[in-house]
Write a structure and sequence with these properties.
The N and C termini lie far apart (65 Å). By secondary structure, the protein is an all-alpha fold. This is Methyl-accepting chemotaxis protein.
């Protein structure tokens, strides 16, 4: 039983770390996508 509890705790920690990583990556992607959303215009207009 202790082994199972420890295994579950390890998986919970890994899941929390993965969630933090994904949250950070999603935030970065959001920042990158802001390029296409600025000023309500299209990216095509801004690029030339």
């Amino acid at each position: 039983m202790d082994t199972m509890t420890q295994s579950n705790a390890d998986l919970a920690i890994q899941s929390a770390e993965a969630a933090r990583t994904l949250t950070g990556q999603a935030g970065h992607l959001n920042e990158l996508m802001d390029f296409f959303r600025r000023d309500g215009g299209s990216a095509e207009k801004r690029m030339g």
